[in-house]
Design a protein that fits this description.
Elements (H helix, E strand, L loop, with lengths): L5 H22 L9 E5 L6 E4 L15 E4 L4 E3 L6 H13 L5 E5 L2 H8 L10 H6 L3 E4 L9 H11 L4 E4 L3 E6 L2 H23 L25 H15 L6
Parallel strand pairs: 6-7
Antiparallel strand pairs: 1-2, 1-5, 2-3, 3-4, 5-8, 7-8
Helix pairs in contact: 1-7, 2-5, 3-6, 6-7
Length: about 250
Amino acid sequence: MNSRTATEDAEWALRCDLAAVFRVAARLNWNEQIGNHNSLMLPGDAPAFLINPRGMLFREITASSLIVCDLDGRVLRGHGELRKVAFAIHARIHLRHPAAACVLHVHPQYLTALSLLENGRLEMVHHNNLLLNGRIAYDDDGFAPAVDVAEGDRIANALDGRSILVMRHHGVTVVGPTPHDAFDELYMAERTAMYQMTASASGGRLGALPPPQRPPHRGAWGEVMDARLHLNAWRRVLDREEPDYAT
């Protein structure tokens, strides 16, 4: 018999989704050893968010290993500590962008490589760019790690109402209202960067698409893409091959 409350059940479902995102990110080699962090605001009156504790590999994360922290960086529930950089980035984005319930901060190969280029930008060359490019902000002023609130606020401001932040010299942060929205948008952005960086490495000239004929979509990614279905598909794989993620 299930003795959990409806609130606890809702939190558990969110924990399982976020744990799945960690496991898939590990498979896709998006994160930096025991670094990088993904967070998710929990429903309720008191602001609190789920996040990975310091020192765990993404492939070790389970639904129950995620800690709950408040926006001042205090660990409210769970075992482990909140990494200083994770607090500086995630708490300040959650505070300044209430619609950004899920915040994914990782260093995937191709978006990170793009961030290392002088004036690195996603060009209008692939069909994906027609949807993605208007959703991307570029932070060209990140010259040091985020170790304090001031830098976290600067990063939060750099998002400028968009959902993807390519962080110069660093990596990428993607936000969304749910784990599946943020995950699918990050997945698409990284694949699109892969196509561009691979084509550029050939030495040939990129062929530009004409400007899009309609305004870019600024709402939830899943309103126009199969974000929920994508994460569900990965969860079926994890259920077969890494079922402990949901424990």
